[in-house]
Amino acid sequence: SQQGEEDPQALSIQEGENATMNCSYKTSINNLQWYRQNSGRGLVHLILIRSNEREKHSGRLRVTLDTSKKSSSLLITASRAADTASYFCATFPQGGSEKLVFGKGTKLTVNP
Amino acid sequence: KAGVTQTPRYLIKTRGQQVTLSCSPISGHRSVSWYQQTPGQGLQFLFEYFSETQRNKGNFPGRFSGRQFSNSRSEMNVSTLELGDSALYLCASSLSGWGYTFGSGTRLTVV
Questions:
Q1: Going by C-beta distance under 8 Å and a sequence separation of 6 or more, which residues neighbour residue B73?
Q2: Which positions ≥6 away from B84 have C-beta within 8 Å?
Q3: Which end of chain B is flanked by fewer CB atoms within 10 Å, N or C?
Q4: What average pLDDT does this structure show over B27-34?
C-alpha cells in the first residue's frame, strides 16, 4: 500500500525555472527519501532527510520536512532538460518494518 | 564500485509459466529488497532479505517467492504467471537499511 502521495502528479516547466514537488504521508517515520527515475529504469537515490531534520540541501536540490503536517517538499532550482524524470518520495516508517514505502510519483518535464 | 546488477533486463513469458529473476547487490551490502512497479499500482514492496533470511514480506500471493544466497545475491521466482504480473521488477541493496541503491530492473511481459 502507498504511504506517500506526491503532488502534483505531473509538472511541466521551462528550463531555468524552479520545480517544486510535494509529498504527504500517513504514519510516523524514521526518515524520508527522494528518488528519481528516468523512463522506467532503476531509481536513483537523491536525498535522505531524517525525522529530526527540517531542511536539507544537495546541489540544486532542497528538501524540507514537516513531521507535524506529515509532508515534505522537493525543490529543484534552475532546472535543466536532463532533470526530466519521475520523482518519488519514500518513507522509512517507524516501528520495525524495515522497508521503504513509495508514493506514486510526480512526472516532471523540463522543456528546453 | 559496481552497482546493483539485475538479470535479465527483459523477459517475455506466457501465462502459466514460471520465471526467475536475479539480483547481485553492491559488494558488502547484506540487505536486498524487491519491488514491483506497474502503471496502475506504482511501486509495491515484495520482500526483503538480510543475511539469507526473509525479514519482510509485502502483500503478494504465494506465487511470488524469493531467496538470498550466502554471497548476498538474491533471486525472486514467480510461478504460474498471470497477465497482471507484467511489470518492472526492481531490486535494491542497502548497507544500513536506509539508503537504497536500485538496479536497472527486469521488464517482465506476460503474454
A1: B22, B23, B24, B25
A2: B110
A3: N
A4: 92
Q: Do B42 and A48 touch (CB under 8 A)?
A: no
Q: What pairing do the DSSP bridges indicate for beta strands B100-102 and B87-94?
A: antiparallel
Residues A62, A53: contact at Cβ < 8 Å?
Answer: no
- Residues of A within 8 A of B92 (CB-CB) are 43, 100
Q: Which residue in B45, B98, B100 is closest to A101 by CB distance?
A: B45
CB burial of residue B96 (10 Å; 0-12, 13-18, 19+): exposed
CB contact under 8 A, A98 and B97: yes
pLDDT < 50 positions in chain A: 1
